[in-house]
Specification:
The chain has 115 residues and is mainly alpha-helical. It has one domain.
Amino acid sequence: MMSWEQNLMRETLETANEYIEKMIEGIGSFNSYMLNNEPSKALELWPNILEGLEWIVQAVSLTKPIQEKDMNVEELIEKLPDLLDAYENGDMILVSDILDYEIKPVLQKWVCQLH
């Protein structure tokens, strides 16, 4: 029988799976806006992307004891300083590239691991 902590972790992982899939879609929307030369629309998504990545990192970290396949949270964390630097420097093309080519693949791998 699962303890309440294990139950809570299982529910958190299920929620994380849904949330990660939405984050992947959000990254796709961000990049579409950038490709369509609509950076202001992309920037509207920025706070949600940052908040979402923070939540995902916390959820993955807290559920480590019950993960069937190791979801190495460092894979995501190590990409965040470059992402924030690019944003602070106003390099939205680089932000878009980091989201698309470095962060999204980690999220996609985690979705596969959770299924």
